[in-house]
UniProtKB/TrEMBL annotation:
PROSITE patterns listed in its UniProt record: HTH_LYTTR, RESPONSE_REGULATORY
Record-linked InterPro entries: CheY-like_superfamily (IPR011006), LytR-like (IPR046947), LytTR_DNA-bd_dom (IPR007492), Sig_transdc_resp-reg_receiver (IPR001789)
Domain Response regulatory: 3-116
Superkingdom of origin organism: Bacteria
MF-aspect GO terms: DNA binding; phosphorelay response regulator activity
Name of the protein in its database record: Two-component system LytT family response regulator
Gene3D superfamilies: 3.40.50.2300, LytTr DNA-binding domain (2.40.50.1020)
Positions bearing 4-aspartylphosphate: D54
HTH LytTR-type domain: residues covered: 147-251
Annotated CDD domains: REC_LytTR_AlgR-like
Coiled coil region boundaries: none
Length: 251
């Protein structure tokens, strides 16, 4: 029996993986976690054989979980991610299995077959491949100081320092840069995971703000803030991100 921990900050995503596993009696779900910190504790306590690990989670993301546990102590891991060009390249380069959301049952079945084969063959070089992946993604986060955007047939590199704020737009993110805006194919969570946390703060599920562009904040009655930027934008946070805003802006 292969014990499984399912980690995703979105409950429907966890439910889908659990439902797909019900048809495979050699897998048993032993726990679910809704964030990276819970996942670190559960892995240390339960010691599952396999973890389905969402990449894009607030605070501690999937790579942060693997880094904190350590490659030599991590169970076998299958990363699940929305489209993230950097992460997908890294998974392919290091031969780490992943599920690209949304995935179908056939793709999930192939992943389970690989899991069975790898677990029966021992950990082999899995630890080294995972260690290299986490190192690359951590380095990527540190190095990111420009964002590539498509402008017609060309790719333009936008300095992070020039971005006023970022706004979710369905499966894209819109960068607001002065009087211009650029649409990039990226999720907010994926982009947030590669931004320097001292320079950018998420204030809403759909908004990330350049801290240096915050001119004023005004507290609301329900725990939210109205954030005024130097570019003239007036944005409203939600109570969910109150503690993070206070920490970054030293309120």
């Amino acid at each position: 029996m292969i014990s499984v921990l399912v980690v995703d900050d979105e409950r429907p995503a966890r439910q889908r993986i659990c439902a797909l596993l019900e048809g495979h009696p050699d897998f048993a779900v032993v726990g679910e976690c809704g964030n990276g910190r819970e996942a670190v504790s559960a892995i240390r306590e339960i010691h599952p054989d396999l973890v389905f690990l969402d990449v894009q989670m607030p605070e501690v993301d999937g790579f942060g979980v693997a880094e904190e546990i350590g490659a030599d102590q991590m169970p076998m891991v299958v990363f699940a991610t929305a489209y993230d060009e950097f992460a997908l390249r890294a998974f392919d380069a290091h031969a780490i299995d992943y599920l690209l959301k949304p995935f179908d049952e056939e793709r999930f079945q192939r992943t389970l077959n690989r899991v069975r084969a790898q677990l029966s063959g021992g950990r082999a070089d899995m630890e080294e491949r995972l260690r290299a992946l986490v190192h690359e993604m951590s380095s990527q986060a540190v190095r990111m100081d420009r964002i590539p955007v498509r402008v017609g047939p060309r790719t333009r590199f936008v300095d992070l320092a020039d971005v006023d704020y970022m706004e979710a737009d369905d499966n894209y993110v819109r960068l607001h840069v002065g009087e211009r805006s650029y649409l990039i194919r990226e999720t907010m969570s994926a982009l947030e995971s590669r931004l320097p946390p001292s320079r950018f703060v998420r204030i809403h599920r759909s908004l990330i703000v350049n801290v240096a562009r915050v001119q004023e904040v005004e507290p609301g009655f329900s725990g939210e803030y109205v954030v005024f930027l130097t570019c003239g934008a007036r944005l409203t946070s939600t109570r969910t991100y109150r503690a993070r805003i206070q920490a970054v802006l030293h309120l």
